[in-house]
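pls design
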């Protein structure tokens, strides 16, 4: 969907009225991408929670430094659905989201997978406050928020899987994520178009931290406007 289409007709607007005539909050929401039809199938009966989180992010995300102003016209497709498509790769158990930030992917995945327990790991106080607010408002009983850097976090027991999105290169993520995972656990790391090159350049770190069988999985083909790439690997 184009940016102009995403900024189209809003409920209750008068013919010929300008967006600038609306309140600041309504003005920001006027450019938010309309919900793609595929969203309901990805979230199922949890779609209302996904809608509320998306609205909260649209209303507060820029002001609180969580997303940039250019992200509103692609908030669903580039961010929410980009994360939700990863949900089938998770197994019931304990999953950590390193550098959770705005809750992408942690909050989105917790909505999509209520059968999985999530630990959102984030060092910045203002982002921890946001994550905590969202967990409370959305009633996400399967989420805990931990304020810590990944390298400093101390968990009661190892995680089954760890995810991260837009945090760092694979070779730099390995020392931050692999030590958090139990023997036989997995890394499920969201990446861009250069994912395979990142795997190829991380051989040294993979050997050091016992990361095995790294593969790039492409998700969302013929479903999303933009595919999602994930580096999935085991730690053993």
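designed seq:
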């Amino acid at each position: 969907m184009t940016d102009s289409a995403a900024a189209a007709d809003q409920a209750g607007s008068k013919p010929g009225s300008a967006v600038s005539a609306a309140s600041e909050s309504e003005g920001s929401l006027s450019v938010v991408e309309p919900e793609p039809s595929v969203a309901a199938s990805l979230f199922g009966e949890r779609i209302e929670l996904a809608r509320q989180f998306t609205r909260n992010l649209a209303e507060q995300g820029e002001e609180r430094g969580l997303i940039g102003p250019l992200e509103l016209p692609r908030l669903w497709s580039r961010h929410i659905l980009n994360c939700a498509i990863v949900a089938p790769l998770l197994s019931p158990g304990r999953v950590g989201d390193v550098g959770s930030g705005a809750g992408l992917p942690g909050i989105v995945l917790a909505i999509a997978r209520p059968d999985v327990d999530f630990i959102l790991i984030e060092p910045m106080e203002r982002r921890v406050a946001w994550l905590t607010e969202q967990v409370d408002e959305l009633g996400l009983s399967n989420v805990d928020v931990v304020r810590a850097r990944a390298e400093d976090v101390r968990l009661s027991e190892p995680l089954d899987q760890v995810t991260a999105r837009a945090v760092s290169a694979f070779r730099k993520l390995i020392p931050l994520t692999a030590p958090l995972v139990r023997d036989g656990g997995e890394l499920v790391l969201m990446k861009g178009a250069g994912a395979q090159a990142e795997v190829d350049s991380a051989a040294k770190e993979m050997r050091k931290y016992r990361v095995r069988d790294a593969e790039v999985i492409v998700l969302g083909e013929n479903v999303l406007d933009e595919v999602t790439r994930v580096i999935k690997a085991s730690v053993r």
